[in-house]
Structures are given as C-alpha cells and as structure tokens.
Amino acid sequence: MKKKIIFILGIIVFSTYSCQKALLYPPLPTSISNQDYAPFSTPARITAQVLALYSNLRSGQLLGGRYQIYNDVKAENWINATNNSVTAYQTWLESVNSGSSEVLNLWTQCYFAINNANLFIDGMAASGNTVLNNPALAANYVAEAKFVRAVAYYCLLQMYCPSIAVNGGASLAVPLRLIGASAYGNYDMAPSTVAQVYAQVIKDLNDAETGLPVAYYTTGTTLDPVSNTTRAHKNTAIAYKTRVYLSMQQYTNAVTEAKKIAPQLIAPFSATTGVPNALQVSIANVFKSPYTTTESIFSMPFVNATEVPGGQNALADYFNTVSTTEFYLNPAGVVADTKWKSTDARRALVSTVSGKNYITKYALGSPFVDWAPVIRYSEVLLNYAEAQVRATNTLDLTAINLLNAVRGRSDATTVYTVASFPGGVPDLLAAIVQERNIEFLGEGLRWADLLRLGLPIPAKGAVASVPANDPNNYIWPVPSSEQSNNKLIGR
Amino acid sequence: MLASHAYAQNRTITGTVTGTDDGTPIPGASIVIKGTKIGTQTSPTGKFTITVGPGPQSLIVSFIGYVAKVVPVSGTVVNVALDPSHKALTEVVIVGYGSQKRQDIVGSVASISGKDLVEQPVQNFEQSLAGKASGVQITIPNGVLNTPPVFHIRGTNSISLSSQPLIVVDGIAAYTGDVSGGESGGNTLANINPDDIESIDILKDASATAIYGSRGANGVVIVTTKKGKKGNAVVSLDSWYGVTKPYRLPQVLDAFQYVALKNEALTNFGYNLATTYTALATGPDGNPINTDWEKLIYRDGSSYNTSASISGANEKTSYYFSAFYTKQSGVLQKNDLNNKAILINIDHKPNKYISFGGKISYSDNQNLAATTSGSLAGEAYNTGGLGREAVLLPPNLGPVNNDGSYNLSSTGALGTMADKGISISYTNPLVALDLDRANNEIYHTVGNVYFQLSPFPWMSLKTIYGIDYINSVNDAFNNPVSNFSTVAGVVTNAASATDSYVQYKRSVWTNTANFDHTFGKHSLSLLLGNEQQQSNTTGFGESRSILSDPSFNIIQAGFTTTTASGNTIGKNYLVSFFGRFSYDFDKRYYLSATLRKDGYSAFGSDSKYGYFPSLGLAWSLSQEKFWEAAKLDKIFSSFKIKGSWGRVGNNNGLGDFASYGTYGTGVYNGQPTLSANATGNNNLAWETSSKTDIGLSFGILKDRITADLGVYKNDITGLIFPYQEPPSAGLPTQPSVNIGSMFNKGIEFNVDAEVLHSKNFRWNSNFNVSYNINEITALIPGVTFFTYSTSSLETASINQVGFPVGNLWIVRSAGVDPTTGLRIFVNGQGKQVMYNFIGNKYLNMDGTPYVATSGIGINQNADAVNYGNTTPKVVGGFSNNFHYKSFDLNVLLTYQLGFYVYYGTQATLTDQRFWNNSTLILDHWTTPGQVAAYPKVVFGDNVSNGTSYPTDFNVYSGNFVKVKTINFGYTLPHNLLSKAGISSLRLYVTGQNLFVFTKYPGPDPEVSSNGTGNSNAGVDRNTAANGRTFTAGFSVKF
Fold this sequence. Notes:
Shape of chain A: globular
Shape of chain B: globular
CATH class of the domain at 2-82 in chain B: Mainly Beta
CATH architecture of chain A: Alpha Horseshoe
Helix content of chain B: under 10%
Number of strands of chain A: 9
Number of helices of chain B: 10
Number of helices of chain A: 17
Strand order of the largest sheet of chain A: 2-6
Largest sheet of chain A: 2 strands, antiparallel
Structural class of chain A: mainly alpha
Strand content of chain B: over 45%
Largest sheet of chain B: 22 strands, antiparallel, barrel
Distance between the termini of chain A: 81 Å
Oligomer: heterodimer
Distance between the termini of chain B: 44 Å
Radius of gyration of chain A: 25 Å
CATH topology of chain A: Serine Threonine Protein Phosphatase 5, Tetratricopeptide repeat
CATH architecture of the domain at 2-82 in chain B: Sandwich
Helix content of chain A: 40-55%
C-alpha cells in the first residue's frame, strides 16, 4: 500500500514538474523583450521610448555631430587638416563612394531613428494608447515620433537625393518605410521618389504640429526651457516646416508657416504662441551653457561623462582647436567676405591659431558636451525672408527687416535698405544666402543650401569645384550594403 | 549424523586470484561454485576461502576486465590466474542514459579506460585523450597551464557556435570551457581527478548521440567515476613528481648580433649612426649586457601530484572516497596551478527493489599567473605578452639598471639604456612578473543523488538530481611602478586592480524508466525519459585605478576611481523527453531507435522544440550458421556490420537570449530611455547535423585482434550566422539566422591487438587513424567568404564556400631578388612584385613602379589566396604496452597530418623594427648577386617579412608525429610486499612530449593562438612554448 502511494505521488510530482513551460520563455534580466508590446506595458516605458527617439537623432553619427559636419565640410568653407578617412576626409574631397563609412553610417542611423519611430507609432496604436489611457498625451507622443521621422527623412533627402527641382521631383530617392521592423524577415523595398518622400515629411510635420504640445512646463505655467529645446513642441514642427518648404521650393507655404511663429512685420520678431522663440541679444549666449535660450528651437543635448557624442563625432573635434582639429576655415571661404565686418559679433566666434582660422561656437574639448544645434530662430527668420522674396519676386520690406534682424543682432552698423540691392531681387537673395552662410557656419546648413539652389560646390584648397549635374560626386550614393542586401533598391 | 556426513564430505578450499597482466592479486573477484549460487569474493589481498560440497566441483572465477575462468577443484589450494580480457565484447559500455554490452552496441562508441589516463602530467583529463581513440582530435593550444584543448570529434562541426563535444560526467552534463578571467587557463574539467575516472566513452555517430538531442552534434563524451568494488577497503595512493622544461624555443640573436644587425638596418634606412643607433650597454660586472629574455620569462616547471582513495563494498553498500592534490608550476614564470579535490561516491541497495546513492565532489582550483602570456584567445598582440616579449625584446637591454632598479623609460616602457634615437613601446616583463597578478580561483561543486525502484525484474524507474556549481573568482593587479602617466611633470600612478566574481549554477533532474524483456531469441529494451536542465550565470565586479598609496596592491586599498567590471548574467532552461528502443534477435540482428524532443529557452519562440531521431541497425555475421559453414569463423571470431542515420543538434555557444528582439535602456539628458537594441529571430534554432554511418567491427584469432572500421558523412545545415538585412530596415543588430551549411566526411579505423602473450612477456598494441574532410557548402546568400582575424589585428583566416573551415588566407611570395635584395611578393594574378620599405614602394621586377588595380601595392583583399587547411586531415595514435615479468612499458605516439600552421611568430622574429630577431635573419641579403633567405634589412621594415599581412614564407606544414608519453614501471614482487600488508606497489617514470618529429620550425605544431575558435585555427602568433615533462612516481595499494 505504502509503495503504491509513493509510486502515485511520484507520478503526480513528475507529471507536474516534467516541463516547466514558463522557464522556456525567461524574462530578460537586463533588457526588455519586444514581444507582446512589453515596451508599451507601462506609461514610464512609453515615455522612455519617446526620449529614445530623440536620442537616436542625437547619435554622433547623425544630429549629434556628423550630419552637421558633413553638411559643412562638403561645402566650401573648410580645409581638411588630417587626411583621415574616418573623419569626413572623403566627404570633403567630394570622393565618397558607396563603400565609404560615412555613407553607410549616416544612412544606417537615419533609418534606425525612422524604424524606432515606426515601431513606436505602431505600438502606440496596438497597445500604448490603452496603457497610457490619456489620449492627449498619447497624441503628443505620436506627434513627437512623427516629428523625429520627418527630421530623419529630411536628413536622408539632403545627403542621398537630388534636389526636388531636378526631374520635377521624380528622381528615385530612398525607401519610404512607415512600418516598424523588429525581427529577421524580408525587407526588400524599392525607393520612393524625391517628391513622395518630401510629401511624407510634410505630412508628418503637419501631424506633429497638430499633436505636439504648445510647450513643456516644469510646473503649472512655468516653461521648461530644457524640454523646450530638446523635445519637439508645436513651434518646432512649424520651424522645421519653414526649412522643408524652402527645400521643396514651396515658398508660399514656407511664408505661411513662418508667419505662425514670426507674425510681426518689423523687428523684434518672436513667436507669440507656444514657446516664445526669439533671437537673443548676443549670439554667443546661444552656444553657452545652459544652451536653452528661446533662440535654440531644437538642439541635441549632451551631459558631461554620461552622454557624449562619442569619439571623432563632435563638432568641437572638427571645427575648433580643443582636440584633434580635423579642419580649419578655408581662407577663401565665407571668412573672406569683406562685408562680414571684423566688428560683427560672429567674427568673435572665429579664432586664429598659428595663422589658421577655426570657430569657437563649440568651445569644449573632450568629452565634447557642447550641445549640437539643429534649428535656431534666426534660421526661421532667414527662411522666411528668402521665401518671401522668392514668393513675391520683389524687394520685400518684411524680408529686408528679417535680414536686418539677423545681421543687426551681431552687427548693428550694417542696416540694409532697398537701396542696398541695386541689382534688385537677385542681390537681395544673394545677401540672404550669404547671411545664412555667415550665421550658420559650422551648423550644417551650407550644403543643403547649395543643393536646394542647384549651385555647384565651389572649389576649396586642392579640391575642384563639383557642378550640380555631376553624376557621381554631387550627392552621396546609396551605401553598397543597401545595394547588396535590398534587391529592390534599384539605384 | 547428517552433520557429520556433511563434515566428512565438505572441503574448505583456499586460494589467491591474480591477474596475468601484472601478477598482482585481484581483490573483489567473484568465486562461485559452478551450478550453485554459492559464492564469495577475494579479500583485498586477493585471497579467498570457500567451502565446496562433495564430488567433483568447479569454481567460476571472474572479475571485470578479465576473462572468467572455470577451474576444477583439486586439493585444498586453488590459485587462479585470470587473463585480462582483450577488449572483451562483454565489456560494459556507458551510453546515453544507460549502459550496454559492447557486443549489443549499434552505434559508434569508443571507450577509454581510466587506467590509460593516469600518471600523466596534465591539468585536466581532456589533455590526455590525444591519440587514444579514432575520430578524436586533441590539440593543446599553448604552454599555459590548464587551458582547454581543442577537442574535436570527427572534424569541425560548426563555424559560429562551439565545435567542442558535450561532456557528461556521471549523468550530468558538465560545464565546459575556460571560466578563468585571469591569465592562466581555467578549464572547468580540472575538477576531475584523472585517478577517479573509471572509464570514458566517446559517442560519435547519430545512433549514439541523438539521444542527447540538440546538444549531441559535436559528439558526446561520457565520463564515469569510480565506485567501490566488492571486498574490504582498498586504500590506494598514487604520487608523482615531475620537472617540465620548455622546449623548442626559437633561437634569437644575442646582444652582439642584435646591435650589429640593427645598426646595419638603421644605416640601410639612411639614419645617421652618430645620432641614432643601438649599442651595447655595460652591466654591473663591467661586461656588456647580454640579456636572454627567454631565460627570464621561461623556467623549468615542476609538478607534484598525489591522489589517495579508499574504496570498498559489501552486498548492500559500496563507497569510494578520494582526495587529490596537485601543484604544478608551468614553464612560464609565475604560472601555477594548485588544485585540491575530493570525491565521494556512495551506493546502497537495501533490497532487490530499491537502490539509492549519491556523489559529491568538490575542488578548489587555483589558476595563477602574474601577467598575460599573450597565448590565450584574443591576446596574441598584447604588448606585455610573455610569449612575445621572450623573443622580441632587445638583448642589449637589461631588465634592471646597474643600481638594481627596474630599467624603465620615462613612460614606463622598457628603458633603452645605451641606445640613441630608438624608442621602445614594450614593457619590462620583470616588473609585471614581480609585481602584477592575474589570478583566478575556481570553487567547483558537483553532486547528485539518485533513487531507483525496480518493482519488477523487467522494469526499473530511476530519478537522479544533480548539480554543477562553479564560483570563479578573479583577482588582477597592475603595478604602479611601470604604469603611470605624466602631465606637466606631475607623475600619477596608473595602477589598477580588477576583481570579479562569476557564479555558474546548473541543476539537472533526470527521470528514466527502463523496460527489458526477453522471450525466445528476442530481446527488447525500452528506455523512456524526461530531463530538465537549468543553468544560471551571474557575475559582478569592480575595477579600481590610481592607487592612493603606491605601497598597496589589493583592491580593498585606497584608489581614486572605481568602475563596474565583469557584470554578466545569463540563464537557460532545457527540457527534454527521450526514448530508446533496442531490439535484437538471437544476437544476430540488432535494431536501435532513439528519439528526443528538446525544448530550449534560447531558441526562438517559434522554434522552441526540436525532434532528433536516429535509427541504427547491426548484423552480427559471425553468429550466422553460414559463417561457420564457410569456415570464416576460423579467421574471424566475431564480425559485425552496422549502419546508422540520425539527426542531432548543436546549441553549444548559442547566446541565452540570441533569439530575442530586445529594447535596451539609455539616457537622454539625464532621463531614462528605452530603444530597440537587438533584433530577434523567432525561428532561431539549433544547428542540425544529419549523420550517416556505416561500420564494421571484427575480431580475429579469438578476438586477440579486434578492429573497428567506420565511414561517415555528416551534413550540417542551419549554421548560424548574423544575417545582413538592408540597413534601411533600421534594425538595431544583425539577427542570428540558421542559414549556412557544410559537411564532414571521413573514415576511421581502430585496431587493438595482443601481439605477443607468453608467461613472462606480453605486448599489447593499439593503433588508430582517422581521416576527415570538411567543406563549407553555403554561408549566407550572396556571400562566398568571411575572413577572420587573430586578436582583431591580423586577418590570417578565411571561411570560403567550397573549402574547409578556418583555412589560411595568405599572400604569396617568391623569395628575395638577388640584385636588389628586395622581398618579392606575388599578387593575386600571379605577378611578381618587389617591395622597398624606403618610400614604401612596390615595384615591378624591372624596377618600374607597380600600379595595382586596387591602387595600393600588395593588399591582402586583392592579393591573398585561400592557401590551405589548418584542421588536420589525418589524426591518430599508436600505443604499445609491453610487460616483461614485473616491468611494464607504455609508449604512446600521436600524430596529426595533412594541415598547415601559420607561424606568425616568425614574422615577429624577422621584423625590422627594434624587435630582436631569430638567428634565421643572419641569412639576409647584403651584396648584389647574393641569394639570401631574407631581404636587405631596413630599420622599421614591418612589411617585407610578413608582419603587415600574412605571407606564405611563414606558413609551414604542421605534420607531426609526437612521442607523447613513455611510461616505464616496475611492480615489486608480491611476496615481498604482503608481509608489509601491501597488496601492490609499482614504481614508474614517465616522460611526456619527449620528441616531436616535424618540419614545423615553431615550438610546437600543436598550437592555437585563438583557443578553441573554429574559424581561426592553426595560427601560431606569439604563443608561449610548451614543455617536456619527466615525472617519477609510485602507486601503492593496501
């Protein structure tokens, strides 16, 4: 009898514990599984994902440094000092090929940011909205994801695609991926056209403007300057649209957007709704800690020791003399502009060491925790000015006021009037474009300006000029890794 | 009346049972009166007493490992001498979850007796398996103590995962590999005292391994430890002492030769010898300093080993207790192994229904080293690597200055003494040897308990629960004397201490049911089982740097910075259901079928479970009537044909969470973030081996000669590679995907022979040989090859479709141009190109500049070729045992043939930077017309002699035959000892690695700079040499 009981007990114990199914699906000890929408299972995780979307943009490979660096050195204002192919030498030489590391790395990081935004948008619809149980906040978050996606696609359009003016925007651009990828699978996808990708960027930015908060607050109605600089709010989406419409050559639309955050006809210009974005009195203050003035509409934050751009990615490492000093200013570039007066406050941001010029906008050496600017209010004003002139094809007074606002902030002795432009509209446009060249030196806007205007890349040092119709060297090629692993890429 | 009748008729017989092999008494031998169940056992001294009935009687005398004898009783003293069985077919072989008689085995299983593994100066038993069984390749990678050898059964079976076999110790799958975080090896299997091993059974084909399912593809090694044998307590003690000398060290230049050569090289480059030169320095004795760095770094090692055990058993209980201590010092200074281990095995059988028992073993394994040897995987280019510094450091520099202080430069490197204009970045190894530590200590506990119930004779149910726990503690210290930084004249020490603690915990619970039934000529056996295995790894530690006071040297002291180090975590769970059905008819036809279902946590959620079937068939022709009729039995005493097919998996080395898509944490301006950080693959599964085997076993001359011949083909599919998705998919990492394939096919042959057998002289011989071909048939779509580096620097290895795994990827050369003294390389198209270091110029043979299509001279990507295989095609061993009266001699030869070794160290040895050179360099070009082995020496030249890219003049055939061990023993006469109560005493001397016959010029063709890596095997880059060991010892039994 006893034996039988033991035997039966044994069978029961055995059959109960012969397979502990839960152990076959162990919870991850140091990360979170992407199965069953686990990253969306708590409000805190959802918030953390939103911030991660920005930190993907902030990667040193993208807006944390290298995007701005490539845009600057691909244009004419810099001379390479180190011949190091790891640090943008080939970009500067206008000789990148599909195997170049910068071509692969920037592409990869843009799509990483895009895919995470896609995953987030998908996950919110499937699970996160319910978990959050706060429709307004959920809409804010999704809007932020769309903003991030738009920014990343815009970056791809600048580096890898012809201007929208070429071929009526029908040129092949990049694959337009709007659904998140999380596992091994078939990801072959044909590229969309330039016009299609731009249309998506605008769509995302419009959605973002609708969904984003007017501002972030620390408590009550106290503005949170840090979040208002490091996260997107309504004015950020609007500011970005002025940039995108300018690239799309839709000037009326650019003006419409600009007026939303610069409604005045004369200086001082400032946003009257949401975050009170405005020019600062001194440009130098914009590039100093805490980096959160209302002029910095969107910047990439860095924190000493814990959040740094990483080796060979920092703006200061390339453009200042605080570390490796990869580049120095082309003496024949914008610094040679005699109308850029020596008393201009922006000249104070140019340093001279051993006869060579550098910029000091990024002052901190390793570990390089100067914040990386993405879009400033002065750009909105100049976008507005240029769009206004191009839309009206006149020596528009508001446009001249906008130009004066930017110039006058740093150089009170120069005041443009209609009489300053004897050549008419082309003169005014040239002045605005040159103002951008001065104002945003080292901030990664110059190449995008050359591209959208169809201008050749001027010669610099020993590097010859590249005409806008150069089939090989004007824009970057699609990386070879994409060509060999995406059967439908077709370019 | 009855009593007196019985008294009158019964006789008391006494006697002694001895073995004819060594003449020593056999304790625990069984004596049974034929036709009865009456029996007894011999005492520890081999004596027995038994009372037999009236009339003619016979005794059946038997003992495991000996041929049973039937002896008629005549007189009152019956002394019996048993012959050892020649690989007796009745021998029991341990197979997966059970045991079988050898003659019933359908699969391919090689068995090695524990006796063959003892008395060898090794640190773990794996090292002594070389040459012992067919199909088994053992390669000792370097001279550092206790590193796991490369252990391959029937070739390399994986590329990204491990190709090392599953090791099962007493039923529990053991942790394997190196768990040391220090600079000595830390083979987990060092916890097993070779003296405790009863047998090792190596399962090779699918029929034998498929019952291990997703872990069996690389073969399975079953280790069985000793249990007590019937009889009184037997005490045995085995002790030896040995000396190890480093062997075949490269011969390097002395200080005079070095200074002459380097000054010649400096002149050739165009340096002004007035300002830049190497020079002899004057030592404290007034003579020039002439340092033999090899002598400073290598030493004569010693080893001491003692193993003691007490064992015995009665009808109900058996016990085995052992203790083990070994202290070995390696050929590298400060590289020591101290190992203490105990083992207890106890079994109890209170009645015929129940038995239970258990095992507990514990070992404390100290793996000590001062600093890096540069020989473990990933270390080949360590500037402080002892193997490298021993040959590289200039002999005109000394380790200490004349005042006795360390010779250090202003940056903490080796000081340049009388040299001018020469800068040296290498360390002074004496400082590290004196002051640094890179130690590891492993506390290893293995145990199990089992309970077995046999309610009916044909049924037994068994449950066994086992654990394997390892605590690995690492303690490293870098001294403040040679590690410091100087900023603006202020010197800050850069001493550091790093300690970490890693815990490995595994538990295994196995339940099996066994059913046996025999009716008529049919024998059936069915095994059903369930097993669960859980493994958890957790580790943590810290790294501290900049000592507050340079007199401290432990981590608990004051340091200025502390960071986390060695944090690790892992867990996995394997649940299995398995069965084996065995059937034989009349011992003529055999069938064995197995099936295992494995569920493993690391597999993708859509591939959690795998099924692994096998089928084996055998036909014993010698049992057939026609065999006798054809008189074949006159030649073949046994003859069996067998074949098997099955599918087996490999998951060894698959990351615990490799299939998971995960999100990881980060920070954005101080706030937590969560972002995709690993790409999942829900279909990630095991790599699959489909194994087909055909074998032949036969015995000749009443099995005096037995042989096995096997032919196999192993098709491996689903090799795991990181799959390159389009970057625009935006995935965080490349997912692991089962996508590649390759095969191994080969033939193996093993023969055991009793060559001679007379009263005083016996000669037994074993010869085995294995031939294996490996070929990759697919990598990932669109990719035809991958290249692999040694320690992330030199890319000498390639895996290419159509070629074996781990081939060499080498640039070819064509000697030295006699006119110019320049090295001639051969580009990818077969064209000769000269290289001139001055100006870094490549020239056509007519002296015009060479313009390559790739644009930059000779370039490995454009010009290297798939040069040859590094895994030996042929491996094997040849063992001979001689017994003459009380003397015995065993000679084991091992060999590996048909492979190349890249002797990268030779590039170091001929490099024209400040590095010292081999004396080979003396044959270099100096005058036009001269035919020389080496080009004109030019200071700084790191291209011409193979440092910049691996070149064919540093590739050699690795073919070798080694006299691996010679063991010579003398057993003292029994009558002499018995008075002292000693049952046997044997004295012996052993030599290991005595000679190696090879054309390979490096220290040892048995080498691997990349540890057990599959894809970068056969590279000898700055690896520390091995040693030759002589030991003497004794083995005594009471």
